[in-house]
Amino acid sequence: MATSPCSSSGVSSSSSSGLGADAGLEIRTRSVEQTLVPLVSQITTLINHKDKPKRSDKTLQAIQRVGQAVNLAVGRFVTVGEAIANENHELKEEMSVACIEARRAGETIAQLTDVASLDHPESDSHITIFTDKTGVVKAARLLLSSVTKVLVLADRIVIKQIITSRNKVLATMEQLEKVSSFQEFVQIFSQFGNEMVEFAHLTGDRQNDLKDEKKKARMAASRAVLEKCTMMLLTASKTCLRHPDCESARINKDGVFHRMRLALEQVIEIVTDSRPNGESEMAPISIYSGIKEFKNKVEGLRENLYFLSKENLSTMLEVILEHTEDFTDSAYTSHEHREHILELSKQAKMELEQLVSVWMQAQNQKTKDLMEDLEVAILKTCQCMNELKREVHSAATSLAADLIKYHTDHMVLKALKITGVEGNLEAVAEYTCKLSEQKEQLVEMCRLLRHVSGTEPLEITCIHAEDTFQVTGPQIISAAETLALHPSSKIAKENLEVFCEAWESQLSDMSLLLREINDVFEGRRGEKRVYLSLPRPGKHNANLKALKPVKLDSEEQAKIAKLGLELHLLTSDVDSETEKWEDQENEIVQHGQGMSSMAYSMYLFTRGEGLLKTTQDLFHQAEIFATEGTKLASALHALSDQVRDDDKPLLLLEAEKLISMCKQLQATAKASAQGKSATFTKVDACILKTRNVMTLLCQLLPLCCKLLRKNKVGNGCLKSAPPWKEDRIRTGTNARTPERRVDTFGIKSLENHVTNMTFLESK
């Protein structure tokens, strides 16, 4: 699709003073909006003073200061704009014109407000804000328009970067589809991974900058697909390379590539605010939004009896009742809920008939009695719609709660893995039928939840969940069939595991989504929850008892996202190193794996995901992480007693480094932090110090391996040729709930595996 960044963002804003930028410009990002706010405020101050009769010396000085401040700010702003123009030749002409206009307007405002030194500022001999009242308004309009153009042009550069990054990803994907050797695949996939990291950075920043919550939710859904599909693409491609004649393996791989392309396309649609072939986006209407709009129209009759027709109101109700058929026709809706919904639908029609009758009479004769009857009819109609809304909410959420609870044991997935390894094609076929039934149930659950989600972002989340189950189900089936055909294939087994994890992860996410939907319905949205699945910080640390647990907002998450991604990459590196150990029970490996698991939880926190829900959860996790690091240091001391004397100093030095860094992290995590800014600074420091410890751990693990091999201590350290991780179930220490994770953007770990890739052929 040909996309143009030209329509990215612009301004459509005006103030009471009559100021307004170009009508064709619309602000779509927070960064552009926040840059304009102070300028609009200063200019509005000037405009509001031009007609005031009283002009004291203090007022005149204030006006002059504001005018000078505006001119200086515009000058600095234009300097940046000109630098951007010089770096981007395709926008240089437009940017230069906008910068010249802005500078000229700023200078004009400075001249018009140069009034403090004049005895008679309203004298015609000197043109000022008071003698040329229209001049300052024109200059202000030109200034706002030109500054906005500069911002919009700068925003187009950001959009161009995202499009360029997407194009690089697509080009590399095409190469990945065509490779026929493992060596070539690994080289290209390493490049692909780095390109995906760049794309993740750019789109993550854009997501947090978007003003439209609906677009932000769509962007989040697309980015989630890309992140999960990156690992799927890896294992599905490897399986295809290992079994090139297997049809189910090819189908499995093609499905991943297709889904990634769709997600990449949607990101560009959101960023450029365009759709293929110019078609408009037709989002399905939910029952909640339909009822809300219907009630607004009905209640509007109190103010105006003539603003809409009875046919219009009847059509709106018909649309709502058509959507309730999604519930009444569903095989998964209980008999009781179905009967109540049908009964309330019938009642809603009757209430509307009564309302229309009184409404028509009131239009002809506006008596007191008729207006009272109209008020009663309005109240009864709205009450009936509220009861209908409550009933469909109950039907959807009770079904969702039952299905989530019933399927959390993942018995079908476990059976598919077992029968696949056994090569039992008949049993695999039986369980794939059961998985298809489960998929239909979960897809129906998502459709019904969308109707009662309450907000557009939650609606989009429901649609994303529906798509995920719809797509992942068949992919699990093709992966299971491949394993059944090649039961001894380790890569086919790993591939099935990855797709099963994606299914389990989405089902787990449904519990959180259901909770949010209930929060919106009950008016509790934004309320802080206590997650009892985690050790509560207040029970373990007296210093934290008085602190209120808080979450990071979207802007704070954006600031810390890059640091979190670095932490993610380090966990991949540590995993890569621990996989090389033959003795997985070795104390050093155990501590390393535990620290990696906790660091991964902290990375998820920076994305607003995972089990760490509040800053206090993070700080407590950081303390446990530091304690685990101290235990690892003790294990290093024990190892130093078993190695040769010339190896001891280096090992002891690294152990002391680790102890020092863990103490610093523990002190930071325990330190008191009052207020939003201080809390965020503490979060940033904890993540940074955790990253530093993980960097040291990446160096320690290969060093210990080398010393063990050199001194032949224990059972040996390196596996002969471990190509890829097989079991990706991560279990944290300190009795935390086990977390499943899929290694998505862990590019460095992929590079570490390059040398071992050829061993797949012999497995």
How would you characterize the overall build of this protein?
The radius of gyration is 32 Å and the shape is globular. It is mostly helical and 763 residues long. Helix content is 72%, strand content 1%. Among the domains are: 114 residues, Up-down Bundle (Four Helix Bundle (Hemerythrin (Met), subunit A)); 112 residues, Four Helix Bundle (Hemerythrin (Met), subunit A) (Up-down Bundle); 114 residues, Four Helix Bundle (Hemerythrin (Met), subunit A) (Up-down Bundle), CATH 1.20.120.330; 158 residues, Alpha-catenin/vinculin-like (Four Helix Bundle (Hemerythrin (Met), subunit A), Up-down Bundle). The N terminus and C terminus are likely disordered. A two-stranded antiparallel sheet has the order 1-2. It has 22 helices and two strands.
